[in-house]
Amino acid sequence: MGRKNHFFRRNQITFVLIVVFLGYVSMTLVRQEIKLRELRYEESNLLSEVEKLNEDIVELEVELEESGDIAYVEKIAREKLKMVKSNEIIYIIQDEEN
User: Fold this and answer.
1) CB within 8 Å of 16: residues ≥ 6 apart
2) Average pLDDT for the chain
3) Is the pTM of this model over 0.85?
4) What angle do CA 76, 79, 81 make, to 5 degrees?
5) Rounded Cα distance, 72 and 70, in Å
6) Domain-by-domain residue ranges, the chain?
């Protein structure tokens, strides 16, 4: 009986150690999967931001090329700075709300 009881106890300890090890491995894999999903989401957001910034760069390059043109400079001066030529008059029409 002593030998059989010793064999069972030895296998029981081995079984418990295997279960603990498998639990540890499982938890590690779950944590890694969660972290991987977070990193993929962050990567997606950063790639979208990079794409938007590249579009902004293209727009700014076009604007830079146009800025040397006198017609573009005049357009900006009229729209943003409200400038007029010496022989022009600006009429401001105000709507009356009743």
Assistant:
1) none
2) 86
3) no
4) 80
5) 5
6) 2-80
